Amino acid sequence: MQTDPAHDLAHLDRVWTNAQAITEDHVDLTVLLSACYLHDLINLPKNDPDRHLASRQSAKASEPILRDLGLDDHRIRAVQHAIEAHSFSANIPPRSTEARILRDADRLDALGAIGIARCFAVSGALGRALYDQDDPFAQDRTLDDLSFAIDHWKVKLLNLPDDMLTEGGRDLARKRVAQMRGFLEVLAQEVGHPLPDNWKTG
After folding, report:
1. Cα–Cα dist 182/179, whole Å
2. Which residues of the chain does CATH 1.10.3210.50 include?
3. Taking 60 as the threshold, does the pLDDT of residue 2 lie above it?
4. Which end of the chain is more exposed for a tag (fewer CB within 10 A), N or C?
5. How far apart are CA 142 and CA 6, in angstroms?
6. Closest CA to 121 of 105, 135, 110
7. Residue 169: which of 90, 109, 113 has the closest Cα?
8. How confident is residue 4, by pLDDT bands cut at 50, 70 and 90?
9. What pLDDT is attached to residue 14?
10. Burial category of 158 from C-beta neighbours within 10 Å (exposed 0-12, middle 13-18, buried 19 and up)
11. Is the pLDDT of residue 3 over 90?
12. Residue 47 φ/ψ, nearest 5 degrees
């Protein structure tokens, strides 16, 4: 498995922890656990043109592992669907409870303290600047998260609570985004640019 600072083995542990925190009734924990730990078997860089195929490739690669672990065909298909549907870029609707939980659990890892660290680690690895020094919060320019790490917050990360599929996922996402907004307030003071109102809410 290829790794980057945001998709290492610790990421898998955190996704499983998140999944347990938001798990609903009538969940097949064997399917959920397997999907959490195998969802990034194939990890392509954020800027890879085939990034949207990674979850399908991971699902396919999971089958021999799941068979070796003794899972039957029904559970293997369930794990593979959860893996396929977890990806933001794949745009595959999750049809099962396990798939919805995995998707939320994976996205929760992009929020809060870990989310802040991951965003800057990945942006640094891709050679992106932390922010636009002249206009950090894109008041007079178009948001560009391919160039600036902080822009990615407004483009995607701060909006993730509304995209959660489970009640537990939404609640936890809102708490973590509130922590991130607190970081933004401090950042704004340090760089000498007031945080615009549209970054503080919604």
Report:
1. 5
2. 9-93, 112-200
3. no
4. C
5. 26
6. 110
7. 109
8. low
9. 97
10. buried
11. no
12. -95, 10
Diameter of the chain by CA atoms?
Answer: 58
Q: Which long-range contacts (CB under 8 A, 24 or more apart) does 53-59 make?
A: 53/90, 54/87, 54/89, 54/90, 55/83, 55/84, 55/85, 55/86, 55/87, 55/90, 55/92, 56/84, 56/90, 58/83, 58/84, 59/83, 59/84
pTM of the model: 0.90
Tokens at 123, concatenated: 């942006």
The DSSP output letter for 195 is: P
Instruction: Give me 102's structure tokens.
Output: 């995995």
Q: Residue 56 burial by CB count (10 A; 0-12/13-18/19+): exposed, middle or buried? A: middle
CATH topology of domain 9-93: Hypothetical protein af1432 (1.10.3210)
Rounded-to-integer distance, Cα 118 and Cα 114, Å: 6
The pLDDT of residue 5: 66
| pLDDT mean over 164-191 | 97
Give the span between the Cα atoms of 198 and 49, in whole angstroms.
31
C-alpha–C-alpha distance, residues 127 and 114, integer Å: 20
> What number of other Cβ atoms are within 10 A of residue 91's Cβ?
9
Q: What fold is seen in the domain 112-200?
A: Hypothetical protein af1432 (1.10.3210)
